[in-house]
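[[Sequence with tokens]]
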Amino acid sequence: MSSEIQVVNQKPSTEFSSQPHNQLFRVGGAAGLLCALMYFITLAVYVPATRAAPAPETPLEWFSLFQQSPITGLFFLGLADIVILILWGPMCLAFYEALKDKNKAWAQIAVVFVFVGIAVFLATNTAFSMLYLSKEYTSASTGPEQSLILAAGESMLAASMGTGGRYTGMPLAWLSGLIFSILMLRSEHFSKAAGWTGIPGLGLLMLSIPFAHYTTGGDTSSFQTLMISVTYIGGGLLSLAWYILAGLSLIKLARP
């Protein structure tokens, strides 16, 4: 009789302990699918905008773009990356919970990389600062005031092209995803396709770091143009597939 009572008492505690994990897997899986959705939203903004006019270069051109289309200006300065990196938070926590039994030390390192990358990128991104400066420039009444705002815009653009978000923030998240992808190959909870799309996809995005300040429309050599196309386009397509496959695997893990 006492043993039956112990079994009855233990059963609810086991079910309760698994419930938070299921919720984390659902949230993390949904975050991965939302990251994939952001790719399509970004394309919907980028393609018509780049066909209409080349990307701005000077602060005055950026201010004009923000006055005409604030959403386009924000996307050009990394709004999609801001959303994606925020979504990386719950997604990587779900990865950690699902993969820590394969290699806890590397899973912990991957989590640290993600949150350091998020902090660095959000601290250095200038999208909303440029939007604010564009409004200030429009309302400025004198030439000296506009000159000061243009100088501030120049410094903001220099910061956005520096070593913060572009060369450190996003690459740390990609490196974290690369670690998790390797661990996925050793886990029965994730498909092999998830691991094998994440490794080359995120790896190619990391290889794109030296070419981050180049564009295919600028003065670039044929080798640079090839590397930009392979790393950005190839890495982008493979990472898109990785977000979908990994997100679906997490959601599947949450099912009773």
User: Anything to note?
Assistant: DSSP finds ten helices and no strands in the chain. The radius of gyration is 22 Å. The chain has one domain: 23-253.
